[in-house]
């Protein structure tokens, strides 16, 4: 058993601490534990339903090279005790699950995964676990999917869906076969999805059970189980993909195809099959769904255009032509919920174009400040001086990356006045002048308090406080991180 106990003023041993000491001595002498002391406060902070549906099944699982946890923990002398299943049953009854839950609480520090014996005892020592577990090293890494499920349950103690949504930032490592998942409450990587070589765009089903990833190496859309990280299906695409988007109702994933003459594949999320390929003007770098959910917009580098698709008919209905290749796009929502303006980044321009959606035309072009500057040339990125743009969820600010400045700039909305900038970290190589981190993509927490920037040149993600414009964390991730997206679980 573990727990946090404090010495009371005036000396003396608290009764609970005395119980723990006796229990430890008893285990040392006899290899078994007396009945557990009741948990203090954990019942009120850890969720039973999550335990029953997500955590409890792990204890019945046969892991390669190991006996199931259930095999040993049904014995009465175990500190963590599981109830014996009824004859012929493969699941516990509600009452049995509540007894399992009560026993698990004695092995948990709510909110603190690595202070919880339920997680550290079966974890390999080299991964931060206890020196010895009589059930063996059930988890060899803190990236083990089952370990992460239990860790999430512990870390989310006390959160209620209505007041504290669980926020995850997904990062595709474009030069690897990994996707990093950052817990926005701790700014730590809590899961790594493996097995998708050259992952590009990423999106989620509305309830968050599935993750959709465009796979450049195989020209497929991978469908991934969010909890386990396992690839459930591979949907063949018409050609090599780039970025993706999902419709507001979650019924269709739109995949930009990175080859001429230009098309957007439509994947039905129920049948998990490609149902249409929509012709657009030029090979697609990025594709988006507008804030009102009525349209999709694709941007083309080769054809220097932005194509607008009517999602009701799945046909391109109009386009805007530019004098430069089209890069990332962000959207401003009108008071009535319609799409008001597009903010379009362009190759060779350190700034963005402004498109009036109702006029179907560019109405302004805004250049970022000259200072800070001095970056981008050594990194070979002067042709893409500004990449990564986003409107905060509250609609009050526009954020724009600059490789030349090695910074992200904040503009107020709707007036598009410059508020300020945040300098991003530098890369320091031996014997060379510092270089920039080459920022690529932007996403936000749903409350608009933090913005996340993928630093592709430093294998990291910068976390910035949107009010103070201060970087509050730098999260190490995989090789050449690019696309970011935010998943909110309620």
What do these coordinates show?
The protein is mostly beta strands and 490 residues long. The chain folds into two domains: 15-155, no CATH class; 168-489, 7 Propeller (Methylamine Dehydrogenase, Chain H), CATH 2.130.10. The chain is built from six helices and 30 strands. It has helices at residues 15-30, 48-55, 69-73, 94-105, 117-120, 145-155; strands at residues 166-173, 178-183, 188-194, 199-204, 210-215, 220-225, 231-236, 241-246, 252-257, 263-268, 273-279, 286-289, 295-300, 305-310, 315-321, 326-333, 339-346, 351-356, 361-367, 389-391, 397-402, 407-412, 418-423, 426-427, 435-436, 439-444, 450-455, 460-465, 471-476, 481-489. Residues 1-44 have low confidence and may be disordered.
Shape: globular
Tell me the helix content. 10-25%
Task: Count the beta strands.
Answer: 30
- What number of structural domains do the residues give? 2
> Mean pLDDT across all residues, rounded?
89
Q: Can you tell me the CATH architecture of the largest domain?
A: 7 Propeller
Strands in their spatial order, largest beta sheet:
3-2-1-30
CATH superfamily of the largest domain: YVTN repeat-like/Quinoprotein amine dehydrogenase
What is the CA-atom radius of gyration, in angstroms?
Answer: 26 Å
Strand residue percentage: 35-45%
Which residues form runs of ≥5 with pLDDT under 50?
1-44
What structural class results from the helix and strand content?
Answer: mainly beta
Which fold name corresponds to the CATH topology of the largest domain? Methylamine Dehydrogenase, Chain H
């Amino acid at each position: 058993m573990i727990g946090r106990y404090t010495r009371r003023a005036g000396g003396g041993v608290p009764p609970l601490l005395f119980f723990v000491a006796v229990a430890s001595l008893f285990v040392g002498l006899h290899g078994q534990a007396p009945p557990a002391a009741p948990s203090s406060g954990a019942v009120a902070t850890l969720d039973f339903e999550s335990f029953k549906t997500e955590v409890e099944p792990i204890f019945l699982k046969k892991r390669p090279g190991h006996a199931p946890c259930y095999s040993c923990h049904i014995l009465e002398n175990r500190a963590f005790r599981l109830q014996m299943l009824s004859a012929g049953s493969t699941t516990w009854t509600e009452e049995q699950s509540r007894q399992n839950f009560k026993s698990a609480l004695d092995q948990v520090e709510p909110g603190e995964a690595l202070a919880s014996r339920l997680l550290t005892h079966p974890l390999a020592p080299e991964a931060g676990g206890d020196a010895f577990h009589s059930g063996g090293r059930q988890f060899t890494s803190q990236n083990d999917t089952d370990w992460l499920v239990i860790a999430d349950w512990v870390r989310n103690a006390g959160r209620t869906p209505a007041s504290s949504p669980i926020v995850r930032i997904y990062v595709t490592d474009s030069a690897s076969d990994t996707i990093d998942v950052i817990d926005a409450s701790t700014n730590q990587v809590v899961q790594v999805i493996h097995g998708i070589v050259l992952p590009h765009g990423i999106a989620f089903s509305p309830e968050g059970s599935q993750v959709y990833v465009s796979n450049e190496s195989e020209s497929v859309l991978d469908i991934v189980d969010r909890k386990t990280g396992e690839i459930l299906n591979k949907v063949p695409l018409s050609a090599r993909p780039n970025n993706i988007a999902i419709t507001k109702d979650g019924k269709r994933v739109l995949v930009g195809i990175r080859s001429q003459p230009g098309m957007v594949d439509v994947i039905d999320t129920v049948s998990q099959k490609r149902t249409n390929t929509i012709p657009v003007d030029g090979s697609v770098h990025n594709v988006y769904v507008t804030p009102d959910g009525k349209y999709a917009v694709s941007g083309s580098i080769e054809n220097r255009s932005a194509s607008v698709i009517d999602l009701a008919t799945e046909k391109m209905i109009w386009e805007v032509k530019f004098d430069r290749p089209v890069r990332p796009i962000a959207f401003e929502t009108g008071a009535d919920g319609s799409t008001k303006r597009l903010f379009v980044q362009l190759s060779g321009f350190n700034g963005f174009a402004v498109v009036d959606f109702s006029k179907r035309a560019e109405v302004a072009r805004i250049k970022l400040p000259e200072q800070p500057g001095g970056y981008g040339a050594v990194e070979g990125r002067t042709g893409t001086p500004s990449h990564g743009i986003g409107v905060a969820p509250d609609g009050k600010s526009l954020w724009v990356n600059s490789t030349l400045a090695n910074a992200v700039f904040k503009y107020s909305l709707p007036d598009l006045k410059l508020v300020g900038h945040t300098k991003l970290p530098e890369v320091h190589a031996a014997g060379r002048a510092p270089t920039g981190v080459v920022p690529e993509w932007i996403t936000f927490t749903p409350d608009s308090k933090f913005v996340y920037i993928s630093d592709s040149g430093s294998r990291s993600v910068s976390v910035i406080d949107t009010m103070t414009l201060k970087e509050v964390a730098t999260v190490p991730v995989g090789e050449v991180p690019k696309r970011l997206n935010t998943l909110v679980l309620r």
